[in-house]
Write a structure and sequence with these properties.
alpha+beta, Nuclear Transport Factor 2, Chain: A, nine-stranded mixed beta sheet
Length: 172
């Protein structure tokens, strides 16, 4: 099993460098409410569309506490950083949902853009959620940078970093 230890400053620097160096493909998906989606055969060769669908599926699985989907989408060596600067693993993320430590009542993705670099994709998302963590209201607007890696025929998220956004997001 490969381990992907990537710092987000490095990812963002690499992302910017690759965009300018090779002209990365980027897809912008406008506002949508997460209802879940599965990758269809028609999307299989379009990495931006696949990762976009996987971002929506991940958000829907969080709301539904669908551990089977979360186990499939999140890599075993996943590393996350929450908007409150706490780090977490795949195990912690799933356990927090199962134990009701993290409760998400709704999650609306109002922007998803994806840059693809071969078998690596960087997804930038903006979302509004109604949630609580450890009994405290954590509802708000968040931006996430997620790193997806394709191994064989399967995309999995290996890293995620979130930031709280205190104003309504304006799509530029």
């Amino acid at each position: 099993m490969q381990t992907y230890k990537i710092g987000f400053a490095v990812v963002l620097t690499l992302s910017a460098a690759l965009v300018s160096a090779v002209g990365a493909q980027q897809t912008f998906i406008p506002a949508a409410t997460v209802e879940g989606s599965r990758t269809t055969p028609a999307l299989a060769n379009d990495a931006e569309a696949v990762v976009t669908a996987l971002e929506r599926e991940w958000a829907a699985a969080i709301i539904k506490k669908d551990v089977t989907v979360l186990e499939r989408l999140i890599a075993d060596d996943f590393n996350g950083t929450s908007p409150t600067a706490h780090t977490f693993t795949k195990t912690i993320a799933i356990q927090d949902l199962k134990s009701d430590r993290y409760i998400v009542r709704s999650m609306v993705l109002d922007e998803i853009s994806v840059n693809v670099y071969g078998d690596v994709a960087i997804a930038f998302t903006s979302q509004k959620e109604v949630s609580e963590y450890a009994g405290k209201d954590t509802s708000g607007h968040y931006h996430f940078t997620d790193v997806w890696v394709k191994t064989g025929n399967r995309w999995q998220v290996v890293a995620s970093h979130g930031s709280r956004f205190n104003e309504d997001h304006q799509v530029s």
